[in-house]
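User: I'm writing a short report section on ligand binding and want a predicted complex to refer to. Could you take this sequence and pyridoxal-5'-phosphate and write out the structure as tokens? A short remark afterwards would be nice.
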Amino acid sequence: MNKINDPASRMQDYLVFGENGGVNPSIPDSATFTFLATETMEGVFAGEIEGCYLYSRHTTPIGNDLSKVLALMENTPAAHVMGSGMGAITSTLLQLCSAGDEIISSRTIYGGTYAFLKNFTPKFGIKTNFVDITNLEIVEKNITNNTKVIYCETISNPLLEIADLRELRKLADKYNLKLVVDNTFCPLVVAPYDLGAHIVVYSMTKFINGSNDTTAGAVCADLDFINSLKSVNDGAAMLLGPVLDTIRAASILKNIHTLHVRMKQHSSNAMYLAQKLESIGLRIIYPGLESHPQHSLLKSMINEEYGYSGIITIDAKEKSIADKFMIAMQENKVGYFAVSLGFYKTLFSSPGSSTSSEIPQEEQVSMGMSNGLVRLSVGLDHDIERSYQLIIKSAKSAGLIK
Ligand SMILES: Cc1ncc(COP(=O)(O)O)c(C=O)c1O
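Assistant: Sure. The structure tokens for the complex follow:
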């Protein structure tokens, strides 16, 4: 384990030299790699020789550099990058589970992950019990002899519920399960591996890359698990093929080195808006606010200097008001009416009809998801008071406030 306690400093210490002394590594332009001896190629295929590149669906040199930086960030022994967050999540779960196995999943997760577990994995005999992850008694009650995995998001999408990773790890240990945590909403803010997760997954499409120009994902875990994902015989990543392109890996590798600066600004801007919007009587969900039911829990889990991350949810109560509000915010240049998050500009969407639309209406209601919810991924705005005024102007024109 790395001795430096601060993830940003660990990442800073990763220096890699490009050809001719370039300060960025060279971008490999090859899908396959030559060998000078037949024995070497045979040894690499058999997994006996390390440090040689075989074929780009397995590993690429620049993907490897990015994986190393991610492992330093997460404090995991290893990591592996993929072409999307869903590639990382689906490969991980299919690697861990076989027909007959069960997963216990938080019911408030990204809609795509929900659809994968609800509609796709049952085709392979894998069953998922969706639970309120904040209720540890219910989590434990749902564990059966067939359960293999507890799956959750640190800060859930879109209700911003907090998973108690330390307690979930205790349950995982008691029943010999793997705790898999999606930390997409709060890189650097929370370090799930240090708190007990066995495997941490990311959609790097969001904060980690931060420029909304590509999809990408990552799995951070111990070396055995990462090697199992890449196994030529039965590795889900190797056999399903969610490869991250080398040019994209190179641009994410540049962007990840500014993540610590960006996360602080996302968080402080979000806190500013959450406090001011709450103070005028709007219902705001933001885990940095004391009114959030799990504020103290998250406070006990975060690296405080990075704040509470950049996502806030505003309850506009009715869909028609939420719709007008979002269009007005776009017209007033608060940001873009678009799904996704972690961008340098503010993005907003209504989860009930977009990123969580895979979750049936009655389940949305039982989770407390009103269809008037508007999720804001707060950008890196320089003058956040000005942005606040533009939000107020939009809220007035939509009839959300007087
Ligand atoms: C929390 C979370 N996990 C995973 C994903 C999937 O990531 P990707 O779109 O990169 O496949 C998303 C996408 O919105 C997400 O919000």
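A remark for your report: The two ends are 55 Å apart (CA to CA). The chain has two domains: 3-256, 260-398.
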